[in-house]
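Quick question: what would this complex look like in 3D?
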Amino acid sequence: MSDTKKMIETVHAARWYGQIIAVNDVSLEIGPGITGLLGPNGAGKSTLMKLMVGQLRPQKGEVKILGERIWNNRALMRRVGYCPEHEGSYEDLTGLELVTALNRLHGIDAGESEKRAKDMLARLDLADAMNRRIAEYSKGMRQRVKLAQAMAHDPDVIFLDEPLTGCDPLARVKVLEVVKALGDRGACVVVSSHVLFEVEAITSEILLIHKGQVLAEGDIYAVRDLIDKHPHKVRVECDRPRELARALVDADHVLNLGFEAGALTVDTREPDRCYPAIPQAAMKAGVTITSLTSPDNNLQAVFTYLTEERDKPGAHGAKTTAGAA
Amino acid sequence: MSAAKAKVAAKEPRGAIRDQGYQPYTGSYTPEGGRWKLIFGRMLKMTARQPWVLVMLILCIFPGLVGGVITYIQAKMYAAGAAPSPEPNVFYLFTKWYGTLIIGFLTALFAGGGAIADDARAGAFPFYFARPVTREQYLVGKLVPPILLVFCVTVGPAMLLAIARAALAKDGDDAMIALLLPFKTIGLGVVEALALGVPVVALSSTSRGRAYVQGAFAALFLLPWILGSVFTGVTRSPWPNILSIRAHLLNVGHFIFAVPLEENERALPVWVSAAVLTALVVGSLVLLRKRLESMEVVGS
C-alpha cells in the first residue's frame, strides 16, 4: 500500500439515475480506522458505498481503493468486504454454509473457507446457531451472518451498510465490539448509518452526505467548531434557573436564554468565554448547578444543523471542511 | 509507553495491520476460470433440494422402461419380418407427449424457474459481485444446472434405449444403422436442453417471483403448442406452429433421426425450425446479459 492515508479515494465521482443525481461530484479520502458515513434516507449513502465497493461504475470521476480503481478489478475485490443493507438471504442454507460458500468465491480453498467461517461466526456469537438454517434465524442473527461474510476473508477495506439494523441491544454491543476491533487493527471500515449515536459510539470520524454531496468530513468535534454561524447551546441544570438567567443576561457572549423544566439553556457563539462564565455567575447568584451539558456537541446536532442549513432556500452549503460542500 | 516504544510507534506507517488473532489468508487461491463451478455447484445443491426436480428425475425412468419393452418386442418381430424396424422409437421417446418431452419441460420449469429470480429475491447479487466473480462466471454457473438436468432426463432414457436397440440388431447392417442412434440422441438432446434450459433462465432474470417465471415459461411452451396444433389442423398449414418450441423440436428430431413425417403431419422447413430455435436461445442469452447489466450491482 503506497499511501495508507488514502485507503479509499474518490475524485469527482458522480452517479445518476435518469434525472436524479444520487452522488454528485464527490471527492474524498478515507484512511485507516472507522469512518461513519452519515446522511438522511435518500442522501446517496448506499450509492456512494456501492461506488466504493465496485458494484456501480461512476458515470463521472473515479473511485480508488488501496490506490487502484475498484471497478472491474477482481483482484482488488479479495481485499474488500461488503455487508449490504438489505435483509434477504438464502433461507435454505445454514449460516455456516452461506459464509463458507461466499468465502470460496474469494478463491479460498474449501477447508480454509469453512474454518474461517466458523471462526468469524463464533466471534459474532453464532457458534451455537451456525448449523441451523437461516430461515430459523432472528433478524439480528441474519445481520450478524451478513457481517460475518463481509469479514471472514480478512479484508483490508470493509463497507458496512447499516450493520446494526434489526440487532437487539446485546447483539449491537457484540457487533460494535467486532467493528471497533477491525478499526483498531488498522483496517479501513466505513459504516453507514442513520442512527447517529451508534456511530458516535465507535468513531468520531464522519463523512456527512446529503443530496449526493459531502457536507462535512473529518472529526465530528472539529466539524462542530467550524460551524461558526450556528449558536452553541449549553444546558445548565440548576435549582433556580431564573436567578442564573438574571446573572447571565448582560453578558455580551450570550445570544439567547431559554427555560426548560429545572434547567436553563444558553445560546452562544463564543463557547470558550461562555463555559467559564456560567459557574462564575452561578456562584455570584448563589445558584447550585447540578449538570452542565452541551446538547449541540454531538453528531445529531451537527447532522441536523448541516442538513437543515443545506435545505434552506438560497443556501449555498454549510461552511465546513468538506471538499464538495 | 516508553520513549523507545513511542519512537517505534511513530515510525510505523499509519494503518499498519496489527493482527489480533485473525490470520490473513496466505494460501493459494483457486483458479479464477473455475469460479463458475462454485456457483454451479451451489445452484445444483439448491436445485436438488426441490422435491419436484427429484420427482422428474425418477419419472423419466418410466418412459424409458416402457420404450425398452416395446423396442425389445418390436426388434424380435422385426427380426422375424413381422414388424417394421424399431428405429424411430428413440425419436418418439424424445418428442411425443408420452415420452420425456413433458418431463424435460417440467424439469426446466422447476430447475430453472428460480435460477436468478431466487437470487434477486434473496438480494444475493451484492454478495456475489462484491467478490472476484464476473457476470459471465455467474451466468454460466446459473445456466448449466437446468440445461444439464434437462439433458439428463431426456438423453438418459433415450441413450439406454438407443444402446438396447443396437444390442438387439438383427444383423450387421442393422447394427451399423443402430450404432448411429447414440450420436443422434446426443444431438437432439443438446438441442432440447438448450431450447428448454436457456429460455427459462432468461425468464428467471426478469422477475423476483419464481412462480411468475414458471407461469410465463409454461405459457411460452404450452400455449403455442396447443394453439399451433389447433390452427394447423384447421388451416392445414404448418405455419401456425411457428412459435411452438415443441413443433420445432419435433421437426429437428425428424431431420436428425431421418424419420419421415406421418400421414397428415405438416411440418415447417427444417431450416425455419433451426432458425427459430437458434433465435430463441441466442435471444434468451442476450436478454440474460442485458438483464444482468441493468441490475444495479453489475452495471457495465
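Answer marked as accepted. Chain A is about 35% helix and 25% strand.
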